Amino acid sequence: MLEQSQNTELVQLSWNFMNDSLRSDVFMRYTPDQIGCACIWLSARIKKICLPENPPWYELLDCTKQQCEEISKTILNFYCIPRPNAEKLERAINAAKEAYELKKS
């Protein structure tokens, strides 16, 4: 596992997943170590990197494969949510501001 610490792509992808997980409820349901394990596990699967399974590396950090999978699914669900249309939101905000100013005056 430690030899992968020099793999900058794996490290960066794991870090990105960790940042994205902050926008979910996983930190209320799992420990930071478990979330970190899931981010590494997910990144390794995406990059097709084999991590030690005998013994499973994540067990050293009090995490199970099932927890890695559950946390990973939660993180990946963020990428399925459609992005809001920024122009449409800007128009709605401007319309609300105009309506507010008209009522105010």
Low-confidence stretches: none
| Order of SSEs | HHHHH
What is the rounded distance between the termini?
65 Å
What is the number of E strands? 0
Biggest sheet overview: none
How large is the count of helical segments?
5
Rounded mean pLDDT is 89
- Gyration radius (Cα, Å) is 20 Å
Beta strand %:
under 5%
Oligomeric state as shown: single chain
Shape descriptor reads elongated
How helix-rich are the residues, as a percent range? 55-70%
Q: Structural class of the helix and strand makeup?
A: mainly alpha
Task: Write structural notes for this entry.
- The protein has 105 residues and is mainly alpha-helical.
- It contains five helices and no strands.
- α1 (8-21) crosses α3 (32-46) and α3 (32-46) crosses α4.
- The longest helix has 19 residues, at 86-104.
- It is elongated and about 70 Å long.
- The chain starts with 7 loop residues before the first helix and ends with a helix.
- The mean pLDDT is 89.
Q: Which key terms come to mind for this protein?
A:
105 residues, mainly alpha, 5 helices
Topology (elements, then pairings):
Elements: H1 8-21, H2 26-29, H3 32-46, H4 65-77, H5 86-104
Helix pairs in contact: 1-3, 3-4
How would you concisely characterize the structure shown here?
This protein has about 100 residues and is mainly alpha-helical.
